[in-house]
Write a structure and sequence with these properties.
Layout: H1 2-27, H2 31-53, H3 57-76, H4 84-100, H5 103-127, H6 131-222, H7 227-255, H8 261-264, H9 267-278, E1 281-287, H10 297-313, E2 319-326, E3 330-337, H11 349-359, E4 364-369, E5 373-380, H12 381-385
Parallel strand pairs: 1-2
Antiparallel strand pairs: 2-3, 3-5, 4-5
Helix pairs in contact: 1-2, 1-4, 2-3, 3-4, 3-5, 4-5, 4-6, 5-6, 6-7, 6-10, 9-10, 10-11
Length: 386
């Protein structure tokens, strides 16, 4: 594009120089008029050189107006009624403006050029009216009108093509961005699913392994003093180990798409089994109705599981109080134990898992250490539905 522009500029300047020096041959101008013609032509060349470097449409439009005025100045200082060499400058400017400027500006310059160029013909017909001069004027007018129409059509086609090119590039860019967003969403979906599976495995195994360790410690304690009791505890430990294996199978079945949430979430069974396995006193209070199709059932199940496990594992609690409040808009939960609490809380994997589950429903969760350890939170069901 730059090479083409430079070539066209070189051709234009060359043609203008040839036309100018040819016009001087026929002018036979005296010194004063010759100097005036040369000065005007130098200004004309300077104006055309400036157009080579300027890109602003408004500034180019102004330079074309100056070009027209300078050409008229050359013609006004000619001793001939019409100097056809000078007059041909109008055609060059006419073509250049039509191809360089935007459609409306190009047509405006074309019309102005046409009107100004006709002034000399008007003088010619006025002073020397004959069929030849009228024919020349009409021919020049028709040629310029034809050039104007063709140039306007070419410029319109060029602008339409540029619009299509811009639109095409925007569409390609949009397509590229959409593909990037899709890839990112797929990547995040995989990460989210992986984190969910990790939370499920951690909550299930962590819960059962804590109970299993406590049962084995109890079996060891009774091994020397009460063999019958030790055997009973070991049988319970075996059941806990089998439950753990079953829980892992459930996670695998979930990955295969065979999970049934309505059968899985049974809070009272979870509480009773944990209490039996660990010997922990658990007070469960439920307000409202628990429905099997509640989308937050899985989250509540795992939060209770992790909360009770933490109470035993980290706080050595002997009593746990659980309050659950169900409504159509939310589920509130409160888990409080009488354990040792914590001087400085650091959220580990289990606590982060609980927070992620709650926040996925637009809810809130707080961890407090006050006369034991407290987990207090709310799951917003309305926001989840929206």
């Amino acid at each position: 594009m730059i090479k083409n522009k430079k070539l066209l500029y070189t051709i234009k300047i060359t043609v203008l120089l040839i036309l100018f020096f040819s016009s001087l041959y026929f002018e036979n101008a005296h010194q004063q008029r010759l100097i005036m013609l040369i000065i005007i032509f130098i200004l004309f060349l300077a104006c055309n050189t400036a157009k080579y470097y300027i890109k602003s449409q408004n500034k180019l439009f102004l330079l074309f107006l100056i070009d027209i005025a300078l050409i008229y100045g050359l013609e006004s200082n000619s001793r001939l009624l019409i100097n056809y060499f000078f007059h041909s400058f109008y055609v060059i400017i006419f073509l250049e403006a039509s191809l360089t400027l935007q459609l409306k500006k190009g047509i405006t310059i074309g019309v102005i050029t046409l009107i100004i160029s006709m002034i000399k013909y008007a003088y010619l017909i006025y002073y020397k009216f004959n069929l030849s001069n009228v024919s020349q004027m009409l021919f020049f007018l028709m040629v310029n009108m034809l050039i104007l129409i063709i140039a306007a059509f070419a410029q319109h086609s060029k602008e339409e093509k540029e619009k299509k090119d811009i639109l095409y590039r925007e569409l390609l860019d949009t397509h590229k961005k959409l593909k990037e967003y899709t890839d990112e969403l797929n990547r995040l979906s995989v990460i989210e699913e992986r984190n969910r599976i990790a939370r499920d495995i951690h909550d299930t195994l962590g819960h059962n392994m804590t109970a299993l360790i406590m049962q084995l410690q109890m079996a060891e304690h009774y091994a020397k003093t009460n063999v019958e009791k030790s055997t009973e505890v070991l049988n319970n430990s075996l059941k806990t180990a089998r439950d753990s294996l079953s829980a892992i199978r459930e996670v695998v079945e979930t990955l295969r798409g065979k999970e049934s949430f309505s059968e899985k979430i049974k809070i009272k069974t979870l509480i009773d089994e944990f209490s039996e396995k660990t010997g922990t006193e658990i007070d469960l209070k439920i307000s409202g109705e628990i429905t099997d199709d509640n989308p937050a059932n899985s989250a509540i199940y795992h939060i209770l599981q992790e909360g009770m496990t933490n109470a035993i594992r980290h706080g050595n609690a002997s009593k746990i109080r659980i309050n659950l409040t169900y409504s159509k808009e939310y589920i509130k939960f409160n888990i409080k134990d009488n354990g040792a609490g914590a001087l400085a809380m650091v959220e580990g994997f289990g606590m982060r898992g609980m927070r992620e589950r709650v926040e996925s429903f637009g809810g809130k969760i707080e961890f407090k250490t006050q006369e034991g350890f407290i987990i207090d939170g709310i799951i917003n069901l309305v926001r989840r539905k929206q």
